[in-house]
Specification:
- The protein is an alpha/beta fold.
- The protein has 3 domains: about 1-55, no CATH class; about 135-225, Isoleucyl-tRNA Synthetase, Domain 1, CATH 1.10.730.10; about 230-290, Ubiquitin-like (UB roll) (Roll), CATH 3.10.20.590.
- Helices cover about 45% and strands about 15% of the residues.
- A 4-stranded mixed beta sheet has the order 7-6-9-8, covered by helices on one side. It has a 3-stranded mixed beta sheet with strand order 4-3-5. A two-stranded parallel sheet has the order 1-2.
- α6 (about 135-160) runs antiparallel to α7, α7 (about 165-180) packs antiparallel against α8 and α8 packs antiparallel against α9 (about 200-205).
- The longest helix is centred in the middle third of the chain and has 23 residues, at about 135-160.
């Protein structure tokens, strides 16, 4: 009964050496017991007790492998006391992709500490009230769009264990929130940050009046219609070489893109009155002027 409930393990995370040690003999024993009909879990997997294996990278300190003889071993307790558990947890998730080596540096964890300080100040600092926060309409609209995009990205990145890029997306969203001073993203941002900084988000969530733990709150959802960009950077090439870039509507037509590109002062100077032989337009990407 216990085997049926606990196995197979959904995901095993360990060092690369585990694939030829722990995983080798645990798989052999499990498959042998399965073939002998002593265990009946995961019949479709032929008794494999591990569904997915992910090998994590190693952490160095200031570019060198940690060693007691070198005196460069990181004691987590020291950093918990100096910066807090959230900063330590979040920095380890942010310093590098899970599957690659990461270099632990004190200035890195200090950067995360400053970010968490910004989060605290945003929610608890001296801000104008929600009623007074009537910022630029464009800033508010951008906050709404970016929030939906961030929910999508963070959700997908957590699923794929890409924690560093998920945190990076949250940093970008916080900057936009500070700029717009709109409350639209306030709850969603906290919910997305909670897996990485569980303590500070729990505290802020409670201070905002919630009676339930943030870790029991439903995960935010995004609207696919809201994550479409309204504009893009149109690359302008002349004979295949990038010469300029200009912001253009996402649905710009070839004729409009042609007019926009040819009207650019830099393009006019480079063409020097020469009429284009051909213009190649790639929607949502570039326009190439051939002379």
């Amino acid at each position: 009964e216990r085997i049926s409930r606990w196995l197979p393990v959904h995901m095993y995370i360990g060092g690369a050496e585990h694939s030829v040690l722990h995983l080798l003999y645990v798989r052999f024993l499990s498959m042998a017991l399965h073939d002998m009909e002593f265990v009946d879990f995961a019949k479709a997997s032929y008794g494999d007790p591990i569904s997915v294996f992910r090998a994590h990278g190693l952490i160095t300190k200031d570019g060198a492998k940690m060693s007691k003889s070198r005196g460069n071993v990181v004691n987590p307790d020291d950093y918990f006391m100096a910066y807090g558990a959230d900063a330590m947890r979040m920095y380890l998730a942010f310093m590098s992709p899970l599957t690659e080596d990461g270099d632990f540096r004190d200035d890195g964890i200090r950067g995360i500490t400053r970010f968490l300080g910004r989060v605290w100040n945003y929610y608890n600092g001296a801000r104008t009230s929600d009623v007074q926060r009537t910022s630029d309409v464009h800033d508010v609209s951008e906050t709404v769009r970016l929030t939906h995009k961030t929910v999508k990205k963070v959700s997908e990145d957590i699923e794929s264990l890409s924690y560093n890029t998920a945190i990076s997306a949250l940093m970008i969203l916080l900057t936009q929130m500070e700029k717009a001073q709109s409350s639209f993203a306030d709850v969603a941002f906290l919910l997305m940050l909670a897996p990485f900084a569980p303590h500070i988000t729990e505290e802020i969530f409670e201070l905002r009046g919630s009676k339930e733990s943030i870790h029991k709150a439903p995960w935010p959802k995004y609207n696919p219609a809201m994550i479409q960009d309204e504009t893009f950077e149109l690359v302008i090439q002349i004979n295949g070489k990038v010469r300029d870039m200009v912001e253009a509507p996402i649905d710009i037509t070839e004729e409009a893109a042609r007019s926009l590109a040819l009207a650019r002062e830099k393009v006019k100077t480079l063409l020097s009155g020469t009429a284009p032989k051909k213009i190649i337009f790639v929607p949502k990407r570039l326009i190439n002027i051939v002379v």
